[in-house]
Amino acid sequence: MVNFSVNGAKVSVPIEDDTPLLWVIRDVLGMTGTKFGCGIGQCGACTVHLDGEPIRSCLTQVSDVADREVTTIEGVGATKAGKAVQQAWLNLEVVQCGYCQSGQIMTAAALIAATPEPSDTDIDQGMSGNICRCGTYVRIREAVKEAAKAAAGK
Amino acid sequence: MLNAKSSAGGAGELSRRRFLQAGAAIGGGLLIGWGDTADAEPGSMPVAEFAPNAFIRIGRDGKVTVISPSIEMGQGTYTSLPMLVAEELDVDMSAVGFEHSPPSDKLYGNPAIGGAQITGGSTAIRGFYKPMREAGAAARLMLLDAAAAKLAVGVVELTTANGHVIHAKSGQRISYGALVDDAAKLSVPSKVTLKDPSQFRIIGTPVKRLDGPEKVNGSAKFGIDAQVPGMKIAAIAISPVFGGKLASVNEAAAFAVPGVRQVAKLDEAVAVIADHYWAAKKGLEAAAPKFDDGPNAKLDTADIVAALAKASKRDGVVAKKEGNAAAALGAAAVKLNSVYENPFLAHATMEPVNCTVHVKPDSCDIWVGTQIPSSAQLAVSEVLGIDRDKVSIHNSLLGGGFGRRLEFDFIVLAARIAKQSSDPVKVIWSREEDIQHDMYRPYYYDRITAGLDGEGKLVAWKHRITGSSIMARFFPESFKGGVDIDAVDGATELPYDIPNLLVDYVREEPPGIPTAFWRGVGPTRNAYVVESFIDELAAAAKKDPVEFRRELTGKSPRARYVLDRVAAMSNWGTPMGPRKGRGVALLSAFGSYVAEVAEVTVWDNGEVHVDRVFAVVDCGQVVNPNTVEAQIQSGIVFGISATLWGEITLKDGRVQQSNFDSYRVLRIDEAPKIEVEVVKSSEAPGGIGEPGTSALAPAVLNAVYAATGVRVRKQPIDAALLRSS
After folding, report:
1. Number of separate domains in chain A
2. pLDDT at B190 (0 to 100)
3. Which ipTM score applies to this complex?
4. Which of A72, A97, A137 sits opposite B74 (nearest CB)?
């Protein structure tokens, strides 16, 4: 049994300790916003926040999040950075197929929370772990900038 | 390999008279759509039978639902097709929603793609531009008639705006929602008048994606997100060599993993079914399946390429002939010969292949994201021996398509697995299975020869295309003459005026590797060859690449215009730094014209970085400029991955690439700046999902030539050829 919290709600999951958080979130808790993309930490589709820091849920054993706070795409809108990122994504029409975007948004929210005024290089480096096959990168760059400004109240 | 089945008819089906039907929707409301004559017995059919036979449903709340004949896979069709309806119906986009269409060629077949229910080939707008508008216009007329009866006034006194019928004289306004019950009882107009483009309020304006909100908050549902009561999850291992068979499985070890429920063995694969994916994956590892490799056990890519090279010396079937290319080549002052090669490519959609199936004694439910719901339904009905109409396909958003989801191999496989279980089973392929059991873009081997006259003018052109025929499998009726019309697409109808031209096709199927469509289809493969070779000819003629092309476009003003614009936009001809270069490509395909200029830097280690790409696109009448720009950006990024790194190779029959570490795709820090200009046009709308990709490779590789003097005739780029010495 592993106890942790997801988007503010406490959960107790009877599951093997080595199960990746991704599959606990998706298959046990039934929250499908967090995506499976590669299973080896290459694509970033499974990004969630652990105590506010972005992690790859496909590589994180559920036992490692015991008694900690997990935030997923379903809950990130409750944070200032997450809300700003989601709004900027809509304003700039970032999404295409949308499959990678949960991970992109989680990474971007963590980026602007840690770096309130990201440079172009900060954005490219900070977002480089998230693959998008639809090629939404040009708009992601602009949207991260806009989100950072909005989150800073500018 | 499986044969694609499509119930699409030929040309006859396209010309069959279509007309409007209407009826009351389940739960109240007005349904309207294009029906086939065979379905239409207005007034005599039970209400429910009208429900799937429609593009539009209007509720008593005034909400308009567009049942989209094309599936959304990122290209924006769930916004652009509803825009067409909303334009003619006179409703605001905020009142419009979308639904996936159920399987039916008859109701949702695309007239631009053989009348089949297929989303592909950049055909959604081309096929449905008129039908969706007509459906909207007919619904509006019926609502007007209903309002006229209700108000006891003549229809001529009524107008419509923003979901209301307005009687200006009396100042009365009735919402569409208040009219749907009356309108549903009316007969459908046999003729509708569409708006003149000067009256458009929605078409041509930037409309926000209707699927945007759900894709930023995690609520969007893709196939992999299917949740069905009692559902189990399966992990799968398929014979690593195509054509191999399952030899042994340690079932006891699989069952020792907590959560494992079942081991489903198939001829060529094994699936472990469990309570959740991790248990299934661990169970599969414990099962340690062994396979007999079969006849392709020793197959290497080099064997396939050697066979293609040999086959390319055979005479091909003529796809296009103008003048006398052989004679003109004989008389040419300068003759050039080249061989170009396109590699096998995987699709690598972000959403790995998956499918959820519940097989019941005499019916079956499938939850999947597919570009071909109708043919998937037929294929499953055949493999399970269940009546076609008892196979329900619940389509979902696609986490990328790019052609992968034009195939039903994985749907049939999931059905065969689920047949062994009484529970619904979601089969999820690992990324490694997804890459190693894709159906791949074929390896193509092109021989191309051309001749210039004494003034450097292009007078003769011979292009032989050798490779797999996807069309022979996918649309066998189209292959009867022996020419694969996809394989030669982008090679036969050039934007250039070439007096003597011969394009032929040699079919050579590779053993041991299944082939399929890939974004940009024929034009992506051929534009690389044609536009690279045009660049070679420009160099041979000692002419500027833009100028050389320009001189050949006298009969194609739209091509010339986009070429001129992209040259201006990119400051063509201005100097660049060392190991930097600019390359151009011009494309006429999918009913659109695209010119791209790429700027690259070739690093000393031979790696190529694409710094900037300029694109000018003339896709005729634009529906949603937001989407057009996005699709060009998208196509460019997709094309760069393939051009720089994309390659699937076989060794001992096994695909050597497995995940994003070995099948590299472009990341944001490697992405160029992209500038897109869209030409204002009232020409018929063209496709936009693919041309951005098609023009990219030659633009980049011509830029590499400009930077280094090295001509890349085999994709992907071999960095060793470009290292500075």
Report:
1. 2
2. 83
3. 0.98
4. A97
